[in-house]
Write a structure and sequence with these properties.
homodimer; alpha/beta; TIM Barrel; Helicase, Ruva Protein, domain 3; 2 domains; 14 helices; 8 strands; about 45% helix; about 15% strand; 2-isopropylmalate synthase activity (chains A, B); 2-IPM_HCS-like (chains A, B); 4-hydroxy-2-oxovalerate aldolase activity (chains A, B); lyase (chains A, B)
């Protein structure tokens, strides 16, 4: 195991957007930014949950404008850099340029694990703008470690200086994580990052496994504030990093207090592992399917878990949430037939 | 990695007692036993949280008598064996004989990690009674792997057929767990078990690490119902075991439904990782100190975390909860001096 410094990229104000339907107020963004900054995390991500341009009918409107979200974070971060998420197709080059003007210093260009090609222009433009560029390979459990490496190599060739293994659905086991990160470490010259969700209760463990294999940049959010079962919780990760004597820049007590006293009260419902989020991790379905499955389950009187299992078998990826209604209807019909 | 069957020892009705101040009703014990039994777990533990004889002024009175707790579990378990916990000093040979008469087939004789000597009579008597005997070395983070092995050897010499590494405070990292279990595997002829708590969010991960090193008996509770941040949650563990194709006998959906629909509504407060339970895992203090520290913190106006850090530095073990008042008073005095 190396003994390198871990850069924490806090996603409370981006992935955490999902947990409150993107409704953070400017005041909350300002307060949370100040707390994260004061706790010592090196990068603070602030964007709509689905990235630049995400505020829309399809993904839900954010409470504040993109400009207000980003500039509020930038204005309140004394030491930390501010990063933005960009999913090509949702966000555009124009969005990127504006984010840069507003003060974002880091962009994380995110694609499905098999679609790195679509990140080329965005990574190149970000480099031209002088931004730090990170490639973000989502749903990393959905392809083999070897294929994931090939996609990572594309992002590196476009100029990304850090590439992430992104466990969007919290579906990777520790060995799954190790295989992906170690392959990256052997074959890439970039820095390597890991973004975990806690659906299988492995967020912290996978982050540590990733570090042991060579990842030096780890995503986390206070109290795990994020989609589905939540992200790796910053304060829990930092406690374990400290026990392992791995430097990370974050003050444990400050992160614990911010999580407990500020973030938990903001949550609309507790971000935790429950039947549905556990099913997401178990089946490996993208967390954006969760609310849709719950709603459709209620409407058609079927178990949302059965919907998600079926959706996983169909190989659905983010953006295909509309498949859910059809699946729910089919399951409801089958129930009637067998009732 | 071996590919052996994992025996799940469910502790919802024993460690879970702590989470509701030992107040399970007979009806709840009956229902929960039937659900665990139907889910397929092989062993169901039902005893006061602090084991046989635990119902007392010192540890809190259980709602039901020891006889009712045990016989209700025995009467409602069709397939699973019922186990009881016994901490020598709290429980006696007489308690053990009665538990055996009431139908308990397994006894787990628990001592502090450096005090296996006190388990001799109890393990020997249990063997004479024809019970299955398990040695349970608590607070396993508090001594070196080598010392823990020496204590385990004592329990084996008394006749225990399974020996557990018990992470009472949820303070072991994955490497800490591996070192202890692998040393047991190399040097003991007994079966090896692991009991984890989730204070550092490593309950499931440590259980998997323990399995990989040779543990074939794992403790878990539905929804993590247990002391402090809770135990390794059965449904989360089973989801990961299933993904790793490790047979364990438990039906995932039944355990998820029981956790969600029956156990969570019984909880007085959510069993989760919060500032205090994270501090317990971080400092390695026994979870029985938690409520005392909270109370003393309020009474003397000091941060309960500072009390626990101080208690950990003093090397306090279970039973020394009365140290907390003195620590709280000292901290309060220091605050005044520096205020």
């Amino acid at each position: 195991m190396s003994n390198e410094y871990v850069t924490i990229n806090d996603v409370t104000l981006r992935d955490g957007m999902h947990a409150i339907r993107h409704q953070y107020t400017k005041e909350q963004i300002a307060e949370v930014t100040r707390l994260i900054d004061a706790s010592g995390a090196d990068i603070i991500e602030a964007t709509h949950g689905d990235g630049l341009g995400g505020s829309s009918i399809q993904f839900g409107f954010s409470k504040e404008t993109e400009k207000d979200i980003i500039t509020t974070a930038v204005d309140n971060a004394k030491n930390a850099k501010v990063s933005v998420l960009l999913l090509p197709g949702i966000g555009t080059i124009d969005h990127l340029k504006r984010a840069n003007e507003w003060g974002a210093q880091v962009v994380r260009v995110a694609t499905h694990c098999t679609e790195a090609d679509v990140s080329e222009q965005h990574i190149k433009t970000a480099n031209e703008l002088g931004m730090e560029t990170v490639g973000f390979l989502m749903m990393a459990h959905r392809t083999s470690p070897e294929n994931l490496l090939n996609e990572a190599k594309k992002m590196a060739s476009y100029g990304a200086t850090t590439i992430y293994v992104v466990d969007s659905a919290g579906a990777l086991t520790m060995d799954d994580t190790r295989r992906r990160i170690s392959l990256f470490k052997e074959n890439l010259d970039t820095e390597i990052g890991f973004h975990g969700h806690n659906n299988l209760s492995l967020g912290v463990a996978n982050s540590i496994a990733a570090y042991e294999e060579g990842a030096t940049r780890i995503d986390a959010s206070l109290a795990g504030m994020g989609a589905g079962a939540g992200n790796t919780a910053t304060e829990q990760l930092v406690a374990v990093l400290n026990k392992l004597e791995i430097a990370n820049g974050v003050d444990l007590y400050k992160s614990m207090d911010a999580a407990e006293n500020v973030i938990k009260p903001i949550m609309e419902r507790p971000v935790q592992i429950d039947s549905l989020s556990l099913t997401l991790g178990y089946t490996g379905v993208y967390s954006s399917f969760l609310l849709f499955a719950e709603r459709a389950g209620k409407e058609y009187g079927v178990d949302p878990r059965d919907i998600l299992v079926e959706i996983a078998n169909m190989g659905a990826v983010g953006g295909q949430e509309d498949w859910i209604i059809g699946v729910a209807q089919d399951l409801a019909k089958k129930q009637k037939v067998y009732a």
